[in-house]
Write a structure and sequence with these properties.
Blueprint: E1 2-5, E2 9-12, H1 16-29, E3 33-35, H2 36-54, E4 63-66, E5 69-72, H3 73-80, H4 86-89, E6 92-94, E7 99-102, H5 117-130, H6 135-145, E8 157-158, H7 161-167, H8 172-195
C-alpha cells in the first residue's frame, strides 16, 4: 500500500499483498517453484535495484544481514510461517525441502495490481541477470558483491539504507540524505497506518 500526502510526497507502508505479488512474479518466472533462499535473494536484489533507480525499495520491508546474505525481514517471517498471513498464503505456499511454490496457477500480469510497471521492469531486469543462478551461487554473489552485507554470525543485523546507497555509488552526503528521506517516509507511513 502507498499513500500520497501533499507536499511531503509519497509515504509508504509495508504491504504483505505487494511482497506476496513480488514473490508470485518471480515464482512464475521460475515455473512456479523454487528454493526460498533463492527467492529471498531475488527479492532483495529487486529492492536494491529499485533503490538504485528510484531511491526507494519496492517492498518497503526491513533489510537485515543474516549468515546466508541479506534478507527482507518480515518477508522471511511470512515464508517460514513465523507470521501467519492468509494474504501471503493466497499467493505463496511453503513446501518441504525449504522450497516455496505458487498457490494458484500461472498468474496474469493484471492480477499483480500492487506492482507498477516500473516494479515489473526492475524484477524482469533482476530475473534476467540472476534468475539462472542456483541458490548457493546467489548466496555467494551477495556475500562477494554486496558490501552492505556484513556477516552477523548466528544472529542478524539491520542493513542501514545509507550503506546500500553508499554501495550503489552515492557519496556520503547523498547516501545520508536519501536514507533520512526513506526513514521519514516509512515513519510517516507507520503513523498513518495506525490511524486507518
Amino acid at each position: 500500500m502507498s499513500l500520497w500526502i501533499g507536499e511531503r510526497g509519497l509515504i509508504v507502508i509495508f504491504s504483505e499483498q505487494k511482497v506476496a505479488q513480488m514473490a508470485a512474479y518471480f515464482l512464475q518466472r521460475r515455473g512456479g517453484r523454487m528454493a526460498y533462499i533463492k527467492l529471498m535473494k531475488l527479492l532483495y536484489l529487486a529492492d536494491r535495484e529499485s533503490m538504485d533507480r528510484y531511491s526507494s525499495p519496492i517492498s518497503h520491508d526491513s533489510h537485515v544481514s543474516m549468515a546466508q546474505g541479506p534478507v527482507l525481514s518480515a518477508t522471511l517471517n511470512l515464508i517460514t510461517g513465523q507470521i501467519q498471513s492468509p494474504i501471503w498464503r493466497s499467493w505463496v505456499t511453503s513446501e518441504a525441502q525449504f522450497e516455496v511454490s505458487l498457490t494458484r496457477g500461472p498468474t496474469d500480469i493484471e492480477e499483480l495490481d500492487e506492482l507498477s510497471d516500473a516494479d515489473i521492469e526492475i524484477m524482469d531486469h533482476v530475473w534476467d541477470q540472476f534468475g539462472r543462478m542456483k541458490r548457493w551461487e546467489l548466496v555467494d554473489y551477495t556475500h562477494d558483491h554486496l558490501p552492505e552485507w556484513i556477516d552477523p554470525g548466528r544472529s542478524s543485523t539491520p542493513i542501514n539504507p545509507r550503506a546500500v546507497f553508499r554501495a550503489l555509488g552515492k557519496d556520503e552526503n547523498q547516501a545520508e540524505a536519501l536514507a533520512r528521506e526513506l526513514f521519514e517516509r516509512k515513519s510517516l507511513g507507520r503513523a498513518v497506518s495506525e490511524l486507518i
